[in-house]
Structures are given as C-alpha cells and as structure tokens.
Amino acid sequence: MACRQADSGLYCISILAYTPRRVSGNRRGSLPPLSKTVFAMNRNLCLATALFMLALPSLPVPGLSDDTVGERLSLESLRQAYSDPDGRIAEIGGVEVYYKDQGQGPAILMIHGSRSTLRTWDRIAPELVDRYRVIRYDLPPHGLSGSVSDEAAERLEPASFTAGLLDHLGVGRVTCVGVSSGGTTCMYFAAAYPDRVNRLIMSNSPSDPVRTDHMVFTPEFARALEEYTESGFESEFFINTFLDFYSGDPQRISEQTRREYYDFNRRVTESNSTALIGIVEDHQKARKAMAGVRAPTLLIWGGRDALLIPAAAGILGGYLENTQVSTVFMPDVGHYPPLESPLRFAKIVAAYIEGATPNTTP
Fold first, then answer.
1. Domain count, the chain
2. pLDDT for residue 171 is more than 90
3. Residues 255, 198: one domain?
4. How far apart are CA 97 and CA 13, in angstroms?
5. Are 64 and 169 part of one and the same domain?
6. CA 132, 134, 138 angle in degrees (round to 5)?
7. Residue 202 is inside which H or E element, if any?
8. Separation of alpha carbons 320 and 336, rounded Å
9. Is the dihedral of CA 15, 230, 8, 299 positive or negative?
10. Helices 310-319 and 283-291: crossing angle, nearest 10°?
11. Does any domain span residue 149?
C-alpha cells in the first residue's frame, strides 16, 4: 500500500496484479513487454494511479517539471476551437462559467465528472429537450469555464456555485443528474438546497472510503501511467488508454470524444482545480451530506466499472439513508454510462422522471 498527499486529499492504493484485456483496434500500435519495474511501480506512479482511479481532474505530479508547455492549450484557444452558438458564459461569484441552457419544461441540471466537460451530455440532451429544459455547465476551471482564484476557492462551495448558476438562469427546482464526481456535486447540492431538488440521479459516483485493492490494470494502462509519471503530461496514448480501461466496450467511445478528452485535459494547468467539484475525501462531511438528501434518488450504475464495482452502488445507497433509493444496473457499461450508452441512459432518466416519480413537485 502506498499513500501520498495531494491538494485534494490523501490517496492510497494497493497494486495487486496486471491482467491483459483486449483493447479495441490497433490504431495505438503494439506495446513492448513490460519491465519488472512497471510491476513494482514507484511511489509517484502509485500517486498518479490513485488520482486517476478516483477520477480526479488532471493534476501535476509533484517533483516533476513539465517539459510539454508547447503541447498545452490555453483557455482562449480552447474557446476558439470548441465554443458553439448554444454556449453562454456567465460570471458566478467572480468565476466565469460556460454553460448551455436548452429546451423548455421542467428543468434537468446535468453535471459532468472530473476530467470531463459538459460535452458528456451531448448525445443525451437532444433526447430530452423536446419536453425538458436541460442545463449543463463546465465545472470551473475545466472545459471552457474560467479560472478559480484563491479568493473564490475560499468563498465558494460546489453547492453554492451550482445554486448561483441556477439563480442567474431564474431556475427554482431541478432534477439533478451527475456522473462520477458530478453525481457527488449533485448530492451536495441536494443536501444543501433540499427545496431546489425534485430528484437526484447519480451515476457511478464514489462513496467514502473508495477501495482500490480489487483493481487489476491492463499492461497498456500500466504503461500509460508510467509514461505520465515520467513526463507529467497526458498524451493521446494516455487518454485513449484511460478511456479504454474505464469502458465496458472501448469501441463505444468515439474518436471525437477521445480527441475532446485529449484537448481539454491538456489545458494549461490551473490552480484550485477541485475547488468547485464535489469530492468525498472528508468522510464525515460526505456522510453528513448523504444523510441529508431528501429527494428521491436513482443510481444508474455501469456494472463493468473497474473502480466502482456494483457493490459500491449498495454502499452509496446505504449512505443515502433518509430517502428512497432505486438502482438500475447497466451490466455491459463501465465508469461513464453517459459516454458509452447515451441513448439508453437518456431513456432511463426519462423513465425515472415520468414513470417512477411523476408526482414529485415540478
């Protein structure tokens, strides 16, 4: 077991074994045999692995200089490349947030996970905007949202920032849908603002503690992590292997999604990268918030998640002890159900709203 302190908390991981798993296609080329040093893994690799396994945002590896400045992208260049006519920018609590607000009807707020952007919902929103108002945003300082100053990080919480955005849009109540740490952000919002959440929908979101001793890494992912610790940079190979490892079926992740992940995760390194993201490293705080949720809750769980195995859904559901919790497993899907199976995910969301909880206050 190796542990290391990072800006967002203490992380520990136990490395057990490596088992080959087929990676779709051969566009990334074959890999040479792994050396014994990869199997041993050093402390820096354990740190990087823990961060990635917990699906946290891209963080620099302590003690490494970044020699890839020329490959990183500025916020301005990302906005030039990825802004579109439906996107808007608002200033909430002194922080610029990029968001989309589409459709009419009862409001659904969708929050992406760490290392992701609002594009997580690009194939889900179109299935719902004919009868719902779908709101989604890039968690600052990620995607096309702005930086988070030290002052803003001290003053704002993920829940209060979310409330501020909804205030800006004139939205009172929402169904809050989040994947991975986005689900945790939704949970904190539902606990802090119970009168503003009709329903809570969480997908493959962590509870605390998060166990890693069950994980088995593919040789490709081990090599990608080793590469990262040597360079401090997330190459296309790293991003592709990361997405492959966390997918039930890597072929479901499109080349466009892979390119977007690569571009957004090579944004110039920002401070306070987790300040406005719901995370669970404070066990007491997280458990108190989970127990404070009163909105009916649905857990949509990818059953092939390498980190948050199906049993993790039961743990999370147990922590949500003061509300009714329903669980739907997607047994062939990994950590990111909205990316892998967006149409199925949208149908489950709609069925829960319209079929299971139609009388919840609109």
1. 2
2. yes
3. no
4. 33
5. no
6. 175
7. strand 197-203
8. 21
9. negative
10. 70
11. yes
Reading the block at residue 91, the tokens are: 């200033």
CA angle 85, 270, 91 (to 5 degrees): 45
* Nearest in space to 296 (alpha carbons), one of 201, 362, 191, 199: 199
Token pair of 111, please?
Answer: 């929050």
CA distances from 290 to 187, 205, 293 (A): 7, 12, 6
pLDDT in tens, 179-210: 999 999 999 999 999 999 999 999 999 997 66
Residue 85, token pair as written in the block: 């006519």
Q: Which amino acid is at 132?
A: Y
161 — pLDDT class (breaks 50, 70, 90)? very high
pLDDT band at 114 (very low <50, low <70, confident <90, very high): confident
Which pair of structure tokens corresponds to residue 259? 């390119």
Pairwise CA distance, residues 37 & 180, whole Å = 31
Evaluate whether residue 361 is within a structural domain. Answer: no
> Is 50 exceeded by the pLDDT of residue 291?
yes
Residues 91 and 180 in one domain: yes
On whether both 246 and 306 belong to a single domain, the answer is no
- What's the mean pLDDT when you consider all of the chain? 85
Instruction: Quote the domain boundaries for residue 170.
Output: 75-209+273-356
Whichever domain contains 121, its CATH number is 3.40.50.1820
- Do 92 and 146 reside in the same domain of the chain? yes
Specify whether 296 is located in the same domain as 343.
Answer: yes
- On the question of pLDDT at 230 being above 80, the answer is yes
Q: Is residue 362 part of a domain?
A: no
Say yes or no to pLDDT of 41 above 60.
Answer: no
| E strand intervals along 231-360 | 297-302, 325-330
| Element spanning 156, H or E | none
pLDDT at 62 over 50: no
Q: What CA–CA distance (Å, rounded) separates 56 from 8?
A: 9
